[in-house]
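Retro notes - structure team

What went well: the batch runner handled both jobs without manual restarts.
What didn't: labels got mixed up in the shared folder, which is why I'm recording both outputs here explicitly, each with its sequence directly above its C-alpha cells.

Job 1
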Amino acid sequence: MLLRVGGLARSTRLRGGAVQLFLPRCGRGLSSGPPPPQDPEWTDTVEYLDESGALLSTAPGARPAVPGADATILSGASAHPLPRPAAAARLAALALRHRSGAPLSAALSALPSAPDPPLLLLAAASLPASDPVPLISLVAWARLQPWFVPSDDLSSLLAARLPPATHSSELLALFDDTLGLPDPAAFPKTLNAVVSALATHGLLEPAFYCFKRLRDAGFKGLETPAYNALLSLLLTRGLAFKAFEVLDEMASSGCALDEGTYELAVPALARAGRIDAARKMFDEMKQREGVVRAPAGVYSVMVDVLAKAGRLDAAMGMYREMVAVGHRVSTAVSTAMVEGLVRSGKLDAGMELWEEMRRGGLRPNFGLYTMVVEANARSGRLNIAAKLFADMEKAGFFPTPATYACLVEMHASAGQVDAAMRLYHSMANAGTRPGLSTFTALLTMLANKGMLDLAAKVLLEMKSSGFPIEVTASDLLMIYIKDGSTDLALRWLRFMGSAGIRTNNFIIRQLFESCMKTGLYDSARPLLETYVAGAAKVDLILYTSILAHLVRCQDESSERAIMDILSASKHKAHDFMCGLFTGPEQRKQPVLSFVREFFQGIDYDVEESAARYFVNVLLNYLVLMGQMNRARCVWKVAYENKLFAKAIVFDQHIAWSLDVRSLSVGAALIATVHTLHRFRKRMLYYGVVPRRIKLVTGPTLKMVVAQVLASLESPFEVSKVVLRAPGDSVLEWFKKPIVQQFLLNEIPSKADVLMHRLNVMFPSSAPDVRSLSFPRSLGMSR
C-alpha cells in the first residue's frame, strides 16, 4: 500500500521550520519486522496517517533525513530512500521555479533535508546552460549555508555558465574570491575558465588583468586553451608585443604548446619581424608529436614574410615544402613569391614561377598582373610586357594609370615611337588621364627623334590636361640645344612664342651660344636682345666668348654681324674696346691709364677667372690687329692686378723664369716680349745676371715662342716643355740691335720672317666657344 507521507507529519518540534521525513520499518501497512530502536537523536514522535486521516502508526523522528540513505518513501509495503538525483532535481526545480530572491531562499530553506556540496553540484549541473540566473541564485544561497564548502568543480561550472558579455563583473568577483582563498592553486579549472571566458568573448582588459594577477601570484596552472584564447585576442587587437609576453610566460611555466598555439605564434612572430624565432618554432611544430603537417595558413605567412624580407632562398624552400606536403598553393602565396623574386632583380626566376603558377591552374590577380607587366617593361623586355598586358586585358582586368604610364614611358625610353604613341592613344581612349611623367617621357622621346610637330601637339594636349608646360617646353628646347640641332631649337622657340610659353634666360643664353657656334649670327642677335631685355645681365664671360668668335672669324660680313652682337650686349667691356682703338684725342688719356681705369672697375672676388679669360682673348685679338703697344699695356695692367701672379719668377741670381702655359697664343707672345724686356732692363741697367733663364711654355705653345725667338737667333734651347738658356748668353743676345728693336716693340721690316711663317705653321682653328686659338696671321692688318 502506498502511503502519503509528505506534508502529513505532525510534530510539536520542527528543526529549522521544515518537516524532516523519515520512514521506519514498523506500523500498520508496513512490512513486518521489529521496530527500529529508539535513537537518542530522535527528539519527537512522528504519526503516520492514511488518506482518511486515520492513524496508521507512530515512530520516533525529528532528525534530518539524508537523501539516498534514510528510508523516507513507502512503495507498497517497502520503505525506500529518496534517490540523490531526485533530490538534486528537486533543488533544480525550485531554482527554476523561483529563479531568485526571497521566494527561492524560503523554498530552499524549507527543504526536508539540507543538501550537501556534492548534491549542490549535481543540481547545478542539471540546470540549463542558456539561463545563468537560477544557477547564480542557487550558488548564492548555498554560500550562506553552514554546510557549504567551496569546490573547484562548482566554481568552474559557474564560470563556464556565466556569459562574459553581461556578467563580466560576476566573473571578476568569482576570480577575486578564488584567488583570495588560502590555496588558489587547488582551483585551476576555475581560474582557467574565467580567463578563457573573458578572452574568448573579447574582453581584453579584464582577461589580461586576470593573467597578470595570476602571473604575479606565481600561479603556474594556466592551461593551453586559456593561453591560446588570450594569444588569439591579443593578436586580433594588434598587440603582438603583449602576445609575445604571454608566450614567454607560457614557456616559463612549462605549459605544453599545441597545434593551435603554433598556428597563432608562428605567423605572429614572422609578421613582427622575428623571422628567426618564427622559423625555430615552425621547425619545433613539425617535429612535435600529433602535428601531422603544418597548416597551409602558417606556410603562407612564412613564405610571404621571407619573400618580403629578401630571404628568397628560404622562401623558395618553404614554398617547395608547402607543395610537397600536399597543400594547394594559394594565389596570395604565389603572388608573394613572384613579387619577391621580381623586386630583388631575379626576373627570370620570377617568370618561371609565374609560368608554373599558370600551369597549375591558378589565376593571377590584378596586383600580380600589374607587377609582372611593369617589371618586364622596366627591365627592357617590352615584347613580353606587351603580351602580358594583352593577357591582362583579356582576363578582364582594367590596367591602372601607373601600368599604362610604365609601358608608355619604357617604350618611349627605348625610342619605339609607334608603340609608345599607340599606348598613349589607348590610354586616352580608355579614359585614363596620363600623368606628368608620361607626358614628359613622350615629349622627350619625340624631341630626341626630332619630331617637332608631333611634340607640339602632345604638349598642347598636356596643357589641356591641366599640367604646367613651361618647364617641359624649356626642357625640350634644351634637348635640341644639347643635340646641336640649332635649327630645330629655333623652330621650337618660335612655337613656344606663338603658344604664349615663356622660357628662362639661361636657356636663351644657351641657344644664343649655340647659334654663335654654328654661325647663325642673324638669329643670335635677336636672342641676345631678348636676353638683355629680360633683365638678364651680360657678364664678362659671355662678352668674351663673343669676342673669341670675332677673333676666329674670317668672313667680313660675319665680322660685321659679330660686331653688331658685341654692341647689342651693352657690356662695359665693349665701351672699353671701342675706346682702346680710338686715338688719345678722343680718349683724353693715355692708353695705359685707360686700361688701368677699366681693370680697376672689375670685382676680382667675383670675376677674377672671367677677367683672366678676357685678357687672353683680348691679347689674341690685339696681336691679330697688330696693336702690340696696346697689347703690352693690357698685359702690364693684368700682371699688376695679379691676374697672372705666378707667371714671372725672380729667384735672385740663380734662375729667372716665365710661365705661359695658362695663356693664349697672343697672350704668350706678348708676355714673352714684355718679360724679356724686363729681364734685359734688369740685366743691363742693374748688372744682375742669373745663372739661367727659363721660358715654361708647355707642349702647345713651345713651337710658337720658339719660332719667334729663333728668327732673332736667340740662345734658348728647346726641350719638351721648356725653353732655357744661360744668363750670360742671354745677356750677350740682349745687346744685339735687332733684339733691342724687337723688345722695344719695333717690329722688323721683314714681316715674312715672323708673321707669315707663324700663319703657315699655326693656322687658325675653330675649337669650342670659350677656347683660345692660334692667331690667324700676325702680320695681317685690319
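Job 2
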Amino acid sequence: VQRHLHFLTVLLLLVLWAYLCSHGDGLRALKRTTGGRRGVALTLTGQDANGVPLRRSKRGWMWNQFFLLEEYTGLDNQYVGKLHSDGDRGDGSIRYVLTGDGAGTLFIIDENSGDIHATKRLDREEKAYYTLRAKAVNRITNTSLEGESEFIIKIHDINDNEPKFTKDPYFTHVPEMSPLGTVVMQVTATDADDATYGNSARVVYSILQGQPYFSVDPNTGVIKTALPNMDRETKENYVVVIQAKDMAGQMGGLSGTTTVSITLSDVNDNPPRFPKTPESSEPGSTVAVLRATDADIGRNAEMNYRITSSDGPAMFDISTNRSTQEGVITLRKPLDFERKRSYTLRIQVENSNPDPRFLRYAATTDEATVKLIVEDVDEPPVFDRVSYVMEVKEDSAVGTIVGSVSATDPDSSRSPVRYSIDRRTDMDRVFNVHPGNGSVFMLRTLDREENPWHNISVIATEFNNPRLISRIPVDIRVLDVNDNAPTFAAYYETFVCENTKANQRIQTVSAKDADEPIGGHRFFFSLAHEVSGKANFTVRDNKDNTAGILTRRNSYSRLQRSTYLVPVVISDGDFPMQSSTNTLTVRVCTCDREGNMQLCNQEALVLTAGLSTGALMAIIICVLILLLIVVLFAVLRRQQRKKEPLIISKEDVRDNVVSYNDEGGGEEDTQAFDIGTLRNPEAIEETKQRRDIKPETLNPPVRRTVVLPPAYRDNSDVREFINQRLQDNDQDPTAPPYDSLATYAYEGSGSVAESLSSLGSVTTEGDQDYNYLSEWGPRFRKLADMYGGEDSDGYRDS
C-alpha cells in the first residue's frame, strides 16, 4: 500500500508540473526523483504584462528522498537531498545557501555540493513537516544566481507511541437483570502517531479481564453485557480490563490498558421473605427468637416458653431470656434440607409468677404456631463409603483398573462430580483416577516386595462449584505372585576331613524366598543335573525346607584338590515354579581320628572361627589405619618439639635475609638470638630477656671502655656520644645480638674521618689502616676481620 501511495504521489507531481509548464504561469516546478542521483534540468518560463515571454536559466533539483523517517538512530547525519543548479560547472564558483525552518541547526547544506543533511533525530509528534528555502549564489560576488526555491520536508511516521485512554480508571453502573447486549459505556484511546500513514494509529480494542460477563466492540470501544440477567444479590461489583492496541491489533503493535469498574444497580426483583434456617446450622445454635408482651411490669411480667407440639421430635428446644423475656429456639440435631425442608412448632407462653386470685377470671397462657423453613446450603460431595480397600496383583499390566470410588452431590441440584488423586499421597504417580466415573487404575508396574501397600487419597469436586471438595482414603494392597526364586538363607561354607567316610553329613542348608504364598513356603533341594554323574557330594532333601550335604567318597586328598564347589538347585512349590542354583564351598582339611580339624589352609581356619574373608580384610584395614594415625601423631609431636634451624639448606638463603630494621651480626652469629624473634620483632614480649647475656638482677651491666684511634681521641663529643650509645645498648634487654652494626647519623664537629661511606672515597683499601677496629670490642670484630690486615683474635670483652 505504501508503495502504491508513493507512486501516485510522484504521478500527481508530474501531471502538475506538465500543467504549469503548458500554461506558463511563471511558477517554479520541482521534480522528485526516487532513484539514484540523476538530475532533471527544468526550463521555467513565464510572461510579463505585455505578453513578452520571459526566460530564466535552467535549474535542476536532486533529492535522495522527500520524506524523512523520524527517530533516526544512525551514527551519521541523515541524508535529506541534493540541491544542484545547471549553472554549477563544478569549479567551486557557486555556493548553496539554505534558509527556513531549522536551517543551520536541524538541517545543514554543503555549500559546495548542495547535499542537505539532518543533524538531529526528528520527532513527527513534535513537528510534522519543515518548510525550507534554497538558493545558489556566486561565491565571489555573493549575488544570487537564481531566485529562492521553497520545498517541504515531511517527517515519515513510525510506530513509536502506544495508545492512551482518555481516562484511567473508568467508573460506571448498569442495572441488574439487564438483557444480553446492553450498552454499559464507551472507552476511547488515542494514538499520537500519524493516522494518515499506515496502521500506526489504527487502534483495536479487546477485553483482558471481565469475561464472560462483558464484551467490547473492537472498533468502537463500546462495552456491552455478555450475559443476561446478572443478579446484584449474587455479585455486585465487576472489574473489567480493556486493552487498546495499534497496528490494527497485529503482532508487534504497541498497547495500553485501562480499568473499568462496573457496579450493578439494584432493581426490585425480590419479594419480602421471612428469615430461614440454614441446613448447615450447628446443634445448639439459635434458629429463631419469639417475643410475647405482658401489660404487667417487673416480676409480674416474667414469662416462660415451652414447645407443646412439633413435627420434628427432639429437633428443637426453647428457653427464656430473662433480661428481654424472649423465647429463644435452639437446634438440637443437624438439619438436612434434602430430607425435610420445613418444621411446624406449637409454642406456649405463661406467667412465671401467676396470682391465684385471678386464675378464674383470665387465662395465664397463650399459644402461637411457628413455622421454620430450612434453607438449602451448597454442600460438598459425599462418598458412599467411609474408606476404600482395594487389591491388585503385582504382575498386573499398566492401565489395569484396581477399583472405583463413588460420590454424589447431596444437594437438590445434583451437580456432577469430578474425581482426582491428591498427589501429595502419590508422589511417584503410581495410580490415577478417571475424572468421570471414579475408576482407579495403574500408571506404573508394582512390586510387592518393594511396597506391599499404597495409601492414597481421592478427591471429589463439585463440577458447578470447584471450591466444594471431599476426600477419602483408599488403601491398595498388592497381592503376591510367584516371581522370585528361592535362594540359600545364608552364605554356606564348610570343610570335609581327608579320612572321612561316605554318606557322612557335613552341612545342613536352608532356603529363603521373598514371595509370601498363602499356604506357606515349600522348598525342594537337589544336586545340579550337570554334575550329578561325577559328583563328589550328594544332596538329601529333609522335607522340612532344609537339606543335608553328604559325602560320596571315603576319602579326599587335600594335596590333589583343596576346595570343592557343590551346586545345589532350590525350587519352590508355587506356580509358576521358580528355581535357582546356589553354590556351597567345601574345603578339604586334615583331621584327627575324632574328626577334629588339625591342618587346613588359612582361609578355612578363619572361616571355621566364624569370620569371612570380607570381615578379615575389614579388621586388617582398621588396624592399619589406627597404626597410621599413631605414627602421624608421633611425627607431628616430634616436629613441634624440634627447634627450627636457622638455615634449612645451603641453597635456601631466604632465612638469612631478615628484615627487622637493623643489621644483624652475620651468618656466624647463630647462637646468641632466636631466629623466630627476628622474623617477627614486633611480637617480642617487653619482659623477654636476651639469651646471650645474664639478667640485670644477676649481673649488672659493666661500663665498657672503648679505645679510640688517635684521630678520634681529641673529638670529645664523638667519644662521649659513642660511649653513651654503647651503654644504652648494653643495658637494653631487647637490643639486637652482639655482632650487630648500629649506624648513627652523627659524626661530630670537625670529623677527621669525614664520610664513612665508601661510595665517595677516592682511596683504595690499602690507603686506610683499620687495625684500630679490633680495639673497639666484639661489636666491631666482623669489620676488623674484613678490613684489618691481621686477625683480631686477641680481643677480650671489657
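One thing worth noting from job 2: The longest helix spans residues 613-641.
We'll revisit the folder naming next retro.
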